[in-house]
Amino acid sequence: MLLTPIICAAILARTWRWSELATLTAAFAALAAKDPLVVLARQRLVWKQPHPETAAAARWFAGWMALLILSGLVLLAAWPIAAVVPMGLGVAAFSALAIWINVNNRQRSTLFQIASAAALTSSSLAASLSATGAIAPWCWVLWVLLAMQATAGILVVHARLDARIALRGAAPPGEPFRRAALIAVAVLLAGAAGAVFLLRGWIALALLAAAAGYGYDLRRQRDAVSLQMPLTAVGQRALALSSLYAGLLILGLW
């Protein structure tokens, strides 16, 4: 959800600037800095006694922040000031939210994960800024389409986890996530219909492929044997579908 949008935007920009590398390193450093910062926040706010992992977390956090600051200086020189302020505030606000969520052990919140999907896929906007100095109109479309697909994927995974838990008898069968996932698939299909109306065939095909993939997964979740599939295999299939989706979007927005 973080790297694929950057790659898509870099390809669709049809140009190259060195600041695009700074976008990549800044995005990676901002994401990687979260884990040690969570440890430091827990040491400060939750833990009563010093924990051995705190010192290592402080060193990692300092290293990632150094990389983030260096990357940010490059972006500050490459981006218009009017874009630097909202992007910086957005990153800071979401980082603060992510730290609060993790410190309070609410990182499994579905709403937070959907918000994370929107935040991570917005890396496409940063890539467009680095490549062209502005957020191209097609990039807003790319962001929305990538966020739609990521949200559907999150809901389908939650539906699968609920079905696995119910299969073991650890909880009664749950349907809320399945219903939400079906709604997300319906949204993808509605988007495909809209793309057909606008004569954007590749985008329609991308949305149909995503809807078909997630619809098939939801159907297989009714099968006890399918639910035994290792989550690593589920993740690999999801990555393959996301890669296909991204490739079709590139063709559609080219």
Task: Give a quick rundown of the structure.
The chain has 254 residues and is mainly α. Helices cover 82% and strands 0% of the residues. It is built from twelve helices and no strands.
Describe this structure in words.
- With 254 residues, this protein is mostly helical.
- Helix 1 runs parallel beside helix 7, helix 1 runs parallel beside helix 12 and helix 7 packs antiparallel against helix 8.
- Helix content is 82%, strand content 0%.
- It is built from twelve helices and no strands.
Question: Keywords, please?
Answer:
single chain; mainly alpha; 12 helices
Please give the structural blueprint.
Blueprint: H1 3-13, H2 19-32, H3 34-45, H4 53-78, H5 81-103, H6 110-121, H7 123-132, H8 137-167, H9 176-197, H10 201-220, H11 224-227, H12 231-253
Helix pairs in contact: 1-7, 1-12, 2-4, 2-7, 3-4, 3-5, 6-8, 7-8, 8-9, 8-10, 8-12, 9-10, 10-12
